[in-house]
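#lab-general

N.A. 3:47 PM
ok so I finally got the sequence cleaned up, no stray characters, all 378 residues accounted for. can someone with queue access submit it? mine expired

B.Y. 3:52 PM
send it over

N.A. 3:53 PM
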Amino acid sequence: MASNSFGSQFRITTFGESHGKLVGVIIDGCPSNISLTEDDINQALALRRPGNNLFVSPRKEKDKAIIASGVFEGKTTGAPITILVENTAFVSSAYQDLKNLYRPSHANYTYLNKYGVFDHNGSGRASARETVARVAAGAVANKILHNSNITLLSFLKQVGPFKIEEIDYADLVACQKKIDSSPIFCPDETASQKIENYLLSLKEQGDSSGAIVEFIALNVPVGLGDPIYEKLEANLAKAMLSIPASKGFEVGDGFALAEKKGSESNDSYECKEGNVFLTSNHSGGILGGISNGMPIIGRVCFKPTSSIKKHQNTVDFVKNENVQFTLSSKAKHDPCVGIRAVIVVKAMLAIVLADSILMNQAAQLNDKNNQKSAFSFQ
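B.Y. 4:20 PM
back already:
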């Protein structure tokens, strides 16, 4: 399995399984002299940690980071950073009855056919437990973004039939406060309550729901990303679609652009007091694969959690016969993966942008002070 790394200049390699001793990440290419402590990482991990409320997996993990290399006296050294997080709260016995079954919409069928082996305990490497490592790496990447005054937001946009239309992110502090105050990271209080009731109902039924997570990056400079095969939106797409259970991605108006005319979707330029402005942002802050200074806005769609506590039909691949099964009550899963994915999406956004910033610095060694500031809405 040779696909555990992501990024170019800021490159992460994740490792570990759901029921293994630990999960972790090695970060290569992080600049030196950046302040970094385990508390910085733990703050991010706490937001993703299971067992926090009724709407996420009840698995009770401590999720405390151990920085094993790459940091000296609270500063990054430029050497590879290794971050480890122990697994302590898994129940492998809940999966013994499933080890010979192809689980509907899970990865064990494809893994077994490709590799000839599969860790059935919590789905091993295919588990969303792997995203702990991404969130840890995202906390480090966010340090680089902070130095560039880039701010990130992510939130739950839709669950099932319930969604929010637009949010006002002009006041970042107020917007982030609304997101943080919601147990499901939804900034709309009315929608949040409807979604919470919906999820509790599904949980009682042993079912699950899909979701859409929206992300926004503000104060992004012009020039991040490269044409053709390193387009910024292409790297974002790869990052987001690598998250477990993700099935769709869009930037700006995305798929809604199929319904529009060019006269409705073009982002016009305007000059005011010597500064160039864009009067709209249908393209989501990216043109030609390069950031244009407007807010980068996109969305990621997540399928309903595959692990549900309903009777399902499948195949016993040892006996080669059709069977019915029901997931053990000991198994611990999210009724909607989109909730904790809010934190993972934000982490992957940070990783892509940090990588792009470092790549851009290498591309413009003699033009460091020539970078234009971000556009603003009029």
